[in-house]
């Protein structure tokens, strides 16, 4: 019995590598040419696997797009959790989450551009239920966590008391996600237009949003904001 386990593990690792090769090749082509202009045959050729192998994993290009999305969401969820760990207040946790998104814009603009392309296709082609199902599989806490953070911040005094736990952070995240994906998609054009690097523009967006959320009457929150502002400068 024990002798068979290494074989199964090796086989699964091989399959995981093949699947990742297909997704990585597709992601590169999507970024270079746009999802709509890439074919399954081109993805297969770029990945270096046989066409029959590609179709063992993905029946069509849509499935590849969703495969990339699932990988991105799972990786981002784990990194965001690590970023938030150790933050002492609701405000600090929200700030850490937004700083994570700024780090992602600096670290991997191609991934953010993919998410912008996905948004456009999602709006045209796919039902919300499909995305909600994927989100629930990856992060069972879902958007309830946003409400929890606002309530936590109101209780500990780091956030303004007039914030609405049911949708404040939802609104903030939609604004931040929209700005992040627009900046990544337009890149140098934004820099030429505004005369500032996109990373600096994005971090200024975060700074203003954090200022709007914070309970400025609490000394501790004010100190956290000053420290946050220095980091963004």
Question: How would you characterize the overall build of this protein?
Answer:
The protein has 233 residues and is mainly alpha-helical. It folds into 2 domains: 1-59, Arc Repressor Mutant, subunit A (Orthogonal Bundle); 61-232, Tetracycline Repressor, domain 2. It has 12 helices and no strands. The longest helix has 30 residues, at 4-33. The chain is globular. It starts with a helix and ends with a helix. The model has no long low-confidence stretch (mean pLDDT 90).
Shape: globular
Report how far the terminal alpha carbons are from each other.
59 Å
CATH topology of the largest domain: Tetracycline Repressor, domain 2
Count of helix runs = 12
**How many β-strand stretches?**
0
Q: What kind of sheet is the major sheet?
A: none
Tell me the series of helices and strands, N- to C-terminal.
HHHHHHHHHHHH
CATH homologous superfamily caption of the largest domain:
Tetracycline Repressor, domain 2
Mean pLDDT over the residues: 90
- Can you tell me the residue ranges where pLDDT is under 50 for at least 5 consecutive residues? none
CATH class of the largest domain: Mainly Alpha
Oligomeric grouping of the chains: single chain
* Helix/strand class: mainly alpha
Strand content: under 5%
Tally of discrete structural domains: 2
The helix content is over 70%
Radius of gyration: 21 Å
CATH-derived architecture of the largest domain:
Orthogonal Bundle
